[in-house]
Amino acid sequence: MSNDDKLIDFSAERDKRIHDLHDRKLNEMRQAFEQALPLPKGKKKPKNKPKKR
Fold first, then answer.
1. Mean pLDDT of successive 10-residue segments in the chain (53 residues)?
2. pTM score, two decimals?
3. Do 1 and 7 touch, CB atoms closer than 8 A?
């Protein structure tokens, strides 16, 4: 084959595409969770529970 520079690695391209799809789904899920359960803006100090002994 004389046109080696025009060859495409289909497995690498597919891996990139699958990764992009997973990133898009992850971002959609993150946005849905942020709308349903918004994170508090200010950090609250957690209350320490007494340790059971």
1. 72 89 93 85 70 77
2. 0.48
3. yes
First to last CA, the chain: 75
- Distances 42 to 34, 36, 48, 52 between C-alpha atoms, Å: 15, 18, 18, 30
Q: What is the domain partition of the chain in residue ranges?
A: 9-36
Q: Dihedrals φ, ψ of 27, to 5°?
A: -65, -40
Give the 3-state secondary structure of the chain: CCCHHHCCCHHHHHHHHHHHHHHHHHHHHHHHHHHHCCCCCCCCCCCCCCCCC
Contact partners, residue 7, CB within 8 Å, separation at least 6 = 1
